[in-house]
Amino acid sequence: MTGQSATERHRLPGNVKALALVSFFTDASSEIIYPLLPLFVTSQLGGSAKMLGVIEGAAETTAAVLKLASGWWSDRIGRRKSLVIAGYVLSSAARPLVALAQSATQVLGVRVADRVGKGVRGAPRDALLADSVPLEQRGRAFGLHRAADHAGAVVGPLVAFALLRWAGLDLRTLFLLAAVPGALACLALIAGVREPARRPGAAKPAPLDARLPGRFWGYLGVLIVFTLGNSTDAFLLLRASQLGVTAAMLPIVWAFLHVVKSLTSTPGGTLSDRVGRRPLIVAGWMLYAAVYVGFARAATTWHAWALFAVYGVFFGLTEGVEKALVADLVPAERRGAAYGWYNLAIGVGALPASVLFGAIWDRWGTGRAFVFGAAMSAAASLLLLLAVRPPFSSSGSPAVPDARADEREVARPD
Questions:
Q1: Measuring CA to CA, which residue among 301, 282, 293 is closest to residue 243?
Q2: Using alpha carbons only, what angle is made at residue 141 by residues 135 and 144, rounded to the nearest 5 degrees?
Q3: Angle 24-172-116 from CA coordinates, rounded to 5°
Q4: What is the C-alpha to C-alpha distance for residues 117 and 129, in angstroms, rounded to an integer?
Q5: Neighbours of 113 (CB within 10 A)
Q6: Predicted model pTM
Q7: How far is CA 309 from the centre of its chain?
Q8: Widest CA span of the chain, in angstroms?
């Protein structure tokens, strides 16, 4: 009986697994298109590097603004699944329409529509995931979710490669086929995810302007600094093509990146449960800086492959861990709004980061653009160590803040 009970405690809840499956299919759909989009925009539609930055930056900023509203609303109504469904359905319907675009501006419209769906679903989904697991499994749950997401991002480019190389499809036909895994994601979400029951005696959801803990806002400020140097990965794909990676091999490079992401995300999240979130995030951000310096100095095709591999480790150390730290810093009943603010902070930097990176690329070359990104990441790492002090237990290990203590901090005037 005791052994069975321990096994039950170790097993992740069904919601975590179902949401992981949803992300797997969604990323398979998205990544059939994404690694080929920079080539499509710049070669077939005549867009510039700066225009590519505008497309991706505007798309991510749109998503981030909507995540704030949808996260707060999911707190307010006490339900998250309906918003998550709406977001996934919208993205799955809009994404394949890039096949019909005749100009870079039309691609911008499709990408924004896709990201509107992401904005509607993102914060409620993360809050739903956090609501579904106990504290001691939080890092592992977010790590597994990211691992499944990246596994889908492996399958998508491999499917794209196979259809381009052996089926002889053109890019537009390939983009239309991205609708199939998108539909499977929606079916998995509707059938497999359940709305978690609200905790007995949970506090009434706070209004959007209610104060969240000061350490949370400090964390968001540091994230903005990092994001200003974290431009769209479309530039990495363009750099890979400069280094000799062919159009047919771009999806394979992208799939390779996501293999590394998938293999490292769950161990990274689990390790953060043991040693703390900040050490993992700082290590990841410094690795990011090293990768960007590497892209600035790269000279041959194998350099691109090696750098993409190391870049994947950066994601494993940071993606799930950054989100788990959000849940550590705020009361449970305000997680939806907190994830909304978290995504808004990233989105605020996404557009200027990508536009600035593209402008530096066009005017001064790739090397200076990548060095700029590395410098911002190093600065953010230092600020995270100095400015963000999450609560710690008496043993020195990370501890999730007590909800009542959070309430006192939120209520206390500055």
A1: 301
A2: 160
A3: 50
A4: 18
A5: 18
A6: 0.69
A7: 18
A8: 68
The encoded tokens of residue 103 equal 């100009």
With a cut of 70, which residues of the chain have pLDDT below it? 1-10, 198-210, 389-414
d(CA 303, CA 308): 9
Per domain, the residue ranges of the chain are 12-194+211-411
Q: How many angstroms separate the Cα of 337 from the Cα of each of 71, 74, 172, 222, 331? A: 5, 8, 38, 18, 10
Q: Under a CB-based contact definition with an 8 Å cutoff, are residues 38 and 238 in contact?
A: yes
Q: Which residue in this structure is represented by tokens 């799930």?
A: 320
Q: Does domain 12-194+211-411 have CATH number 1.10.132.80?
A: no
Region of residue 251 (left: phi > 0; alpha: psi -120 to 50; beta: else): alpha
Q: Which two tokens stand for residue 13?
A: 């809840």
pLDDT at site 370: 94
Contacts of 293 by beta carbon, 8 Å cutoff, 6+ apart: 370, 371, 374
As a whole number of angstroms, the distance between CA 102 and CA 46 comes to 10
Q: Per-residue pLDDT tens for 9-49?
A: 568 888 899 999 999 999 999 989 988 888 888 888 888 77
The gap from C-alpha 198 to its chain's centroid, in whole angstroms, comes to 26
Q: Would you state the structure tokens that stand for residue 195, as one six-digit string?
A: 């709305």
- Secondary structure in 3-state letters for the chain: CHHHHHHHHHCCCHHHHHHHHHHHHHHHHHHHHHHHHHHHHHHHCCCCHHHHHHHHHHHHHHHHHHHHHHHHHHHHHCCCHHHHHHHHHHHHHHHHHHHHCCCHHHHHHHHHHHHHHHHHHHHHHHHHHHHCCCHHHHHHHHHHHHHHHHHHHHHHHHHHHHHHHCCCCCHHHHHHHCHHHHHHHHHHHHHHCCCCCCCCCCCCCCCCCCCCCHHHHHHHHHHHHHHHCCCCCHHHHHHHHHCCCCCCCHHHHHHHHHHHHHHHHHHHHHHHHHHCHHHHHHHHHHHHHHHHHHHHHCCCHHHHHHHHHHHHHHHHHHHHHHHHHHHHHCCHHHHHHHHHHHHHHHHHHHHHHHHHHHHHHHHHCHHHHHHHHHHHHHHHHHHHHHHCCCCECCCCCECCCCHHHHHHHHHCCC
pLDDT tens per residue, range 251-263: 888 889 888 988 8
Residue 388 and residue 329: Cα distance in Å, rounded?
Answer: 10
Report which of 112, 151, 169, 134 is spatially closest to residue 22, judged by C-alpha positions.
Answer: 151
Q: Which two tokens stand for residue 209?
A: 């302007």
